[in-house]
Amino acid sequence: MQFMLLFSRQGKLRLQKWYVPLSDKEKKKITRELVQTVLARKPKMCSFLEWRDLKIVYKRYASLYFCCAIEDQDNELITLEIIHRYVELLDKYFGSVCELDIIFNFEKAYFILDEFLLGGEVQETSKKNVLKAIEQADLLQESKHLEGQTTLRWGK
Amino acid sequence: MDSNPSSQKLSSEGALLGSPRPVRQSRRLEVVKKILPLNSKSQRPEVRGFKIALQGGPGGAGSHNRGGETEGSDQARTFLGAWTRKRWGESRGVETEARMVASSLKLQDLIQEIRGAKTQAQEREVIQKECAHIRASFRDGDPLHSHRQLAKLLYVHMLGYPAHFGQMECLKLIASPRFTDKRVGYLGAMLLLDERQDAHLLITNSIKNDLSQGIEAVQGLALCTLSAMGSAEMCRDLAPEVEKLLLQPSPYVRKKAVLTAVHMIRKVPELSDIFLPPCAQLLHERHHGILLGTVTLITELCERSPAALQHFRKVVPQLVHTLRTLVMTGCSAEHSVSGVSDPFLQVQILRLLRILGRNHEESSETMNDLLAQVATNTDTSRNAGNAVLFETVLTIMDIRSAAGLRVLAVNILGRFLLNSDRNIRYVALTSLLKLVQSDHSAVQRHRPTVVECLWEPDASLSRRALELSLALVNSSNVRAMTQELQGFLESCPPDLRADCASGILLAAERFAPTKRWHIDTILRVLTTAGTYVRDDAVANLIQLIGGAQELHAYSVHRLYSALAEDISQQPLVQVAAWCIGEYGDLLLEGTCEETEPLQVEKEEVLALLERVLQSQMSLPATRGYALTALMKLSTRLHGDNNRICQVMSIYGSCQNVELQQRAVEYNALFRKYDHLRAAVLEKMPLVERGGPQVDEEAKESKEVAQLSEAAPLPTETQASKLLDLLDLLDGPSENAQHPPPLDPTPGDTLIHLLDLPCAPRPPAPIPNLKVFEREGLELNLSFVRPPGTPTLLLITVTATNTSGGDVTHFICQAAVPKVCRRPGLRGSLDTPGEKATK
């Protein structure tokens, strides 16, 4: 995966994860163009489109668009599954997640994404493990110091 | 507070999954629709409390910043315990107080305030004020709260505002011993720093430290950041650390280390040497995450180096075994998606198998059974199963698979085409398009389904269906397919019309069963989508009609009818005008077996052509056609030519230079050169079709005066050629005619227009020309193209003395146009009866 963008129906960016090095200006340009392109799609159209030399896979969940850019040899259908898995993780974590959750807890959304994907590839296919890792990180955050944590096993 | 339907429209409404329950209206009209059917077990109290507080107002329930301030969470819990709707009003009072106490906003407060801003300017103001605070805080140092400041900055950055002054703060936070700081610091690094910034290298040391200290969460953060924004230098520096982590006991760290290695190899391919050896061992892991990462790593290694590819072929049996276990015996529920065992892992393994089996008989054979198993055992009711199936098909088609397996794969794609999910249809069409060349007959079986897909409302699907349909046309199905495609052309969206039209014309050209069918097809395309056809379609049709002698009458009748109906489609008008001009006599005869009898009067024909000439819709080129056609009719049709003469006189003062020139010359033909008119306007000979050479030849050819007429093709050189012709006529003493200098080079520029995969045919041999015979002297030209050098045309001028006496002082002068190069003349003889050859 080259990048993932989350944006609202009004085109406001809610999350951006880039797995390729691009300048800020380029990122903004790409974001703007892609958001326009995806928002212009009618509801009955398929979830894939070709844009520049990339394949774009997008899906709308309520008021939020999840949009991934993959390369030519990547499987579009499994990317849809990746998107769905991420939404399920968010849902499990926030409990019936809605866009507001992602707005006000954007850093959490990033943390969850970083436990699911790494360098643009899937790192963990078990929902349970991802959520456990986040929980334990949250606990670690709540405790004041890190000493004495070396023995804390992270499970899986 | 009833649910107000109008409030549902406003911002961030429903939860992302599932069906909505009735909504509560909040004072700020921000609605939270609960989606999942009461999965309240999964909802943490503090989250709920937070969300409810959110609706009531910011910070009221002691802004629950989950970033670590715990004082709020107690409040939230008690809040929840005694929750009533009345409390919403109270919470707002608390909010204002809380704000006055802290000088800078908490993260959620800031977000709330920004969202509350009514205009862009207001938002900018809020943000600028806050950024000033943040900058001050960074400068003065506020170790307890700097993570919060950075978080705010990151939010502002996502809105599009500059945040570069936070870069150093990221580094500081990463270096801090507190986990909260590190978490936000690393996030900041991933968002604000990239390899273009000079500052990014400074992280290297922090990352190195974090990788080697034992806390897994921290190692995880470091690896994640490294794989997201690690530059080549960083990767080189930290490769040994990552390599060590591959051997760490904790699976959590190992799975991340493996994927970080993937990133490193992408950045610095030389590091493959370090990361190749551990792969074999890692492949024995039971942990799905590590296994997945390892397969990805091996894929990356193999794609970059043929040596690695060779090396890893030996793991094919093991991969086969792993995949077989997954498919046949399944795995634990936590990895399953809609009944498919870990589709992510399956897809990745299939992809690696594809790379390993490509062009390698032995590996391919090892996989054959497994692929068939996966193809038949995967549940296809949901997308997850179809994703695996799709990857299987891609793999089957790419390796050296058995024929039966390939047919199975194509059939799976055919089934996909019938799937109700349009995404599945999309991938099926895309894949079939790639396969249509190599497995043509297998794909042919699904032709009816493909044609169905033409009518998809989604443009990207119908475009693919069109491409595929065109690729499937062959000599046996051309009639049926053309029928379907014509139907599609009539109603397809405008951006597909050009492709459809040219596709039909091309298919017709390649597979036309009869000439008449061919002409009919082109005619229909021109009528339906005339404005979308390519420029050479006109020339092609003219060529075609010209060559089908038996169909002249038929063509001219049909074209006349079509023209009489509609004079707006330019290509059609052009062809019709040409045809009427050439075969007008056949039109008036009125008898044609193949079409309905049409009684046409001479006046009607002339009137029609004049209409074309005068119409606003006609392009200048079209008018040129019409004018020339009228001129030709002056010899074809009987009776006086006053009407035509009149038209020519009128157009002699036309604004358009081209038309004016033509009209003037035609006028000259009427007046001064009436005796030559018939000869000049004779029926055209068939232009030699040397493939792409057609237009080039016609353009360049200068005909010998006595024999042929000027070809009225729509080129600018037309008028000048005619002029030259008349110049030659003016000087009857000049008798050394130069031969037509045919453009010898294959018209490369035209090849792409016709898109025919044919090599240009060598030009047809040119017959000898007798160019002069008077007073006992005969001049003959013969043309030879030496086979070795097709660009060379050897012209032999043979002068024969047929008189009884001697011919003396025979001087042969050859005038050639500049396009020819004259290699040289050789030899001459004067004696009677002898042939002098040059």
Automatic annotation (TrEMBL), chain A:
Which CDD domains is this protein grouped with?
A: AP1_sigma
In the UniProt record, does the keyword Transport occur?
yes
**Record-annotated AP complex mu/sigma subunit domain positions:** 1-140
Q: Is Membrane set as a keyword in this record?
A: yes
* Record's signal peptide: none
GO CC terms: AP-1 adaptor complex; clathrin-coated pit
Q: How does it sit in the membrane?
A: Peripheral membrane protein
Q: Which InterPro entries match?
A: AP1_sigma (IPR044733), AP_complex_ssu (IPR016635), AP_mu_sigma_su (IPR022775), Clathrin_sm-chain_CS (IPR000804), Longin-like_dom_sf (IPR011012)
Cellular localization per UniProt = Cytoplasmic vesicle membrane; Golgi apparatus; Membrane, Clathrin-coated pit
User: Which keywords does this Swiss-Prot/TrEMBL entry list?
Assistant: Coated pit, Cytoplasmic vesicle, Golgi apparatus, Membrane, Protein transport, Transport
What GO biological process term is on the record, naming one? intracellular protein transport
Single GO MF descriptor: clathrin adaptor activity
- PROSITE patterns from the xrefs? CLAT_ADAPTOR_S
Known Pfam families for this protein? Clat_adaptor_s
Q: What does this protein do?
A: Subunit of clathrin-associated adaptor protein complex 1 that plays a role in protein sorting in the late-Golgi/trans-Golgi network (TGN) and/or endosomes. The AP complexes mediate both the recruitment of clathrin to membranes and the recognition of sorting signals within the cytosolic tails of transmembrane cargo molecules.
Subunit structure comment from the entry: Adaptor protein complex 1 (AP-1) is a heterotetramer composed of two large adaptins (gamma-type subunit AP1G1 and beta-type subunit AP1B1), a medium adaptin (mu-type subunit AP1M1 or AP1M2) and a small adaptin (sigma-type subunit AP1S1 or AP1S2 or AP1S3). Binds to MUC1.
- What family does the Swiss-Prot or TrEMBL record give for this protein? Belongs to the adaptor complexes small subunit family.
Q: What is this protein called?
A: AP complex subunit sigma
Organism, scientific name: Bos taurus (Bovine)
Query: Which gene is transcribed and translated to give this protein?
Result: AP1S2
Automatic annotation (TrEMBL), chain B:
Q: Which domain of life is it from?
A: Eukaryota
Bias kind Polar residues: ranges: 1-11
| One Pfam family this sequence matches | Alpha_adaptinC2
Signal peptide (from-to) = none
Q: Which UniProt keywords apply?
A: Cytoplasmic vesicle, Golgi apparatus, Membrane, Protein transport, Transport
Region Disordered: which residues? 1-23, 52-74, 691-713
List, alphabetically, the GO terms of the cellular component aspect: AP-1 adaptor complex
List GO BP terms, alphabetically.
Answer: intracellular protein transport; vesicle-mediated transport
What is this entry's stated membrane topology?
Peripheral membrane protein
Which residues are in the GAE domain?
Answer: 764-838
User: PANTHER family of this UniProt entry?
Assistant: ADAPTIN, ALPHA/GAMMA/EPSILON (PTHR22780)
Family membership, please give it. Answer: Belongs to the adaptor complexes large subunit family.
Q: What name does this protein carry?
A: AP-1 complex subunit gamma
| Organism the protein comes from | Bos taurus (Bovine)
Q: What is the lineage of its organism?
A: Eukaryota, Metazoa, Chordata, Craniata, Vertebrata
